[in-house]
Structure prediction request, 736 residues.
Amino acid sequence: MKRPLAFFSVVFIILLFFSYRVNESVITCSPINSTPEGKKELYGFLQDDTVTLCGTIADYSYKSNYNQITTELRLKQVAFLLPSEKKLSSRNRIIVYINKEETVSIGNTVYLSGRLSFFEKATNPGEFDEESYYKNKDIICSVRKAYIYHKTEDEAVLRQYLKNFAGRQEELLEKCLTQINAEILKAMLFGDKQGLNREIKTLYQKNGIAHLLAISGLHISLLGMAVFRCLIRFPVPVKVSLGLSGILLILYGFMVGFPVSAFRAICMFSLFLISKITKRTYDMLTALSCSAILQLISHPCSLFDCSFQLSYAAILGIAVLMPALQSITETIRNKKLRKVIQLFIPSLSVSLITLPILIFHYHEFSFYSVLLNVIAVPFMGILLPAAIIMLMAANLCLPLARLLSLPVTMILWVYESGCRLLDFLPAGQRNIPHPSFLKIFLYYAILFCVTVLVKKKRQAYHFVIPIAAVFCLLFPMKPHFSVWMLDVGQGDCNVVFSKEGKTFVIDCGSTSKNKVGEKILIPFLKYHGVNRIDGVFVSHPDEDHMNGVIELLECGDKENIEVARVFLYEKSMKTQPEEWEELRIAAIQNDIPLVGIKQGDCIRTNSLGIACLYPLKEQRGLTGNDASIVLSLTMERPGGEVFRALFTGDLETEGEKIILEEYPFIADYDLLKVGHHGSSSSGSKEFLERISPHFAVISCGENNRYGHPHKETLERLSEENITYFITYKKGALCFW
Prediction:
């Protein structure tokens, strides 16, 4: 009753959410459709078709890669030009990449031609969904290898001046600070994260202070209050000072492009200034609701953007949860203890309210993030003013600015040292399984009980409630057996989870997708909350089975994933050492043992067995694909039933014949990983008849240069009435 606007915003968000769930196109209004063959098309244009269009430049940037400069344009008011001289307009934005440095200005209308490219949708759990990411920013597609054949001289003078001003300040940062520190300040002050050091970004993210690397509400509030306090020291009326502060913040918003957190903070701060000018009461929740409604009316898809969720949830934590927790601390009689605990309340409130969002999107949690934020956030009140003073001095006298950079350097050193120190502490970061919507709802329902109970009666034991909420969210579900076959393009990657919570990886590599271990396997493991892999099997040393494993060994420790051991065919380690060299080096550098495996070896858990059937002890001279490790997986189900799966690597016809001779009673598998990506040289009729699997999976990339899967293999599978799936068509497959 007291906050009708806040109530309306809650109803509006709920309606928006369910509208999106029922019919996504109601919100997105995307002109992209699907053809009968399942391919994306835009106004009749398909992937890689040459398109001609015109649009207004909303923003631009330059990227340097391998000594080549690429111009990136973000266009609005786009119109696609058809051969019939018709124009088809879209209210959505697009990204254009030009393979050279192009001189442009914000507000220019450009006519260009290039190759249409649609964003990729994630086909594996945990994989970065490029399509959803850009859709939430109202960007529908990109145009690559473009060239501009006409450009108008229209220009958004103010916005272009602000962009040029920001560029000059970024250059001064590079002259005053080290490269790493300059990139951090660029991200904090101007939202430019292009050159941000990857190690530093990961370090901040793992320890829960990544919000400092964005233009957050904290930055805006500090800047706004600093400007206001500076103005009132001069003989300027208070109302004029307030008005000028608001105008400067709005100009700052235009300069940095109004990211979600900046829009929210500037909107709320502007309402705060208006309340001071009109002598009305400022209400944080009402101001938050007003900014949320304005943001969602202009960009409805922002609701599903991680930055939107974190930004608004953090303020909810401060406005709703923090007063409740502070009220509970008032029951503590010891004054010194009470003051110490109250230092942690703001950071704890924000951490509690944003915890499900962080786990939902990033699947990891730092147990020490609250402690680090208690130190890091207050330092921002020194860091930002010091950085601004340093920049002001740099515009006048560069040697003086370098002297004034000492506080900035010291604070950034404290941040980095704090992160590295926490990395050494035990159980600092953990990978947490992807939470269900029911779990998230239950978490917030329990957390909401704190605010209700505190209003009735404050008791110290009420602190147990948020602990119970965190326990419900982080408590892992009972593990179950499942076999996953991931979509890695032209390659193989299989993951097995046992009922005891053990994890095994069988091959990981690709020749069509870059960094398959880093971008697909590791995010998948984090999505399932995996912190330890009990065994990695590499069937043979081909790139499309092994390069992802090498990335796992190199990056796993940084991503909180321990690899216990790697299994290889022991004879090939001796006879083909050069082919295993890269894997061997990665294992040695990361202290991971390489274990030889041979026919008859078996790895067991209480319910699961993985047996090596092939290569034989006497291999008969077969090498290459026909020397692939063949693994037979057996899992006991309730009632004495057994689930059986066969993984054949790149095994071909000769190897299949040997297996049939060596194991005359091999038969009745539930699942077969078809050898050699569905090549005609694998999956012979005799082999399929004997194995007689219920299901078969072919792992290969779309339009691969080998033509996999071959027509003959698919025909043989159909003749044996085997239900088969192809990863590039179905995405990741789970059998459980």
